[in-house]
Amino acid sequence: MNAATINPQEAAHFGALAADWWDPHGSSAMLHKLNPVRLAYIRDQIDLHWHVDARERYALAGRSAIDVGCGAGLLAEPLARMGAAVTGVDAAPENIAAAKAHAAGQGLAITYHAGELAALPAATFDLVTSMEVVEHVTDPAAFIGELAARLAPGGLMILSTPNRTMWSKLLLVEAAERVGAVPRGTHDWDQFLKPEELTEMLEGAGLEVIDRSGLSPSAAKGFKLGGSEALNYLLAARWPG
């Protein structure tokens, strides 16, 4: 496959947020609240998939990982700290510049690319992640196909995305953008995917969905795993067999 899935308007929108991506109180504050919960899910799936002891610090030692739609590296850096050889790719050059600068400051060796996933050198990865990205591309099915093409045999793919429900329209789009919890124009509710739709795309790419979890608001922690999928959910997939 060699699909072009970047939406230039979306890339420009997120590129404009690059300067304060790492500020937990800035325009990406919601991502900073989401990230620990997403990381917990990713770690659980890594441990289950590769039979890793939950106490192991370097759960991805000797493995490769790619984070697609990596922004300024909010997920790529923790994956590197787990021992993975990490590649990050993002549509916005501004995000990649910020990601490279931050990783250098942390002493982390992460390979970053700006542009289409399909334009990267041919390679597959043990872990493929793409968080809150599929709802921003021009052709979700083609994008999922590109992700699948990057997944190595025996590998693990993890995705997260908002659900297309009335709750997500009210809370993630209308309320969150009105009060400034997320920047205006971040979400297009019509582009959200229901779990069944995303599952069908993954299966169409030859993958098998092995787990799904809701990601819902929590008064104590901001967000929590499990429970309702009405706002957001995570999926884990692999090659069958």
UniProtKB/TrEMBL annotation:
Residues that, per the record, bind S-adenosyl-L-methionine: 38, 69, 90, 131
Biological pathway: Cofactor biosynthesis; ubiquinone biosynthesis
GO term, biological process aspect, one: methylation
Enzyme class: transferase
Keywords assigned: Methyltransferase, S-adenosyl-L-methionine, Transferase, Ubiquinone biosynthesis
Catalytic reaction equation(s): a 3-demethylubiquinol + S-adenosyl-L-methionine = a ubiquinol + S-adenosyl-L-homocysteine + H(+); a 3-(all-trans-polyprenyl)benzene-1,2-diol + S-adenosyl-L-methionine = a 2-methoxy-6-(all-trans-polyprenyl)phenol + S-adenosyl-L-homocysteine + H(+)
InterPro entries in UniProt: Fumarate_lyase_CS, SAM-dependent_MTases_sf, UbiG_MeTrfase
Pfam family of the protein (one): Methyltransf_23
Known EC number: 2.1.1.222, 2.1.1.64
GO MF, one example: 3-demethylubiquinol 3-O-methyltransferase activity
Family: Belongs to the methyltransferase superfamily. UbiG/COQ3 family.
Function of the molecule: O-methyltransferase that catalyzes the 2 O-methylation steps in the ubiquinone biosynthetic pathway.
Name of the protein described by the UniProt record: Ubiquinone biosynthesis O-methyltransferase
Species annotation: Sphingopyxis witflariensis
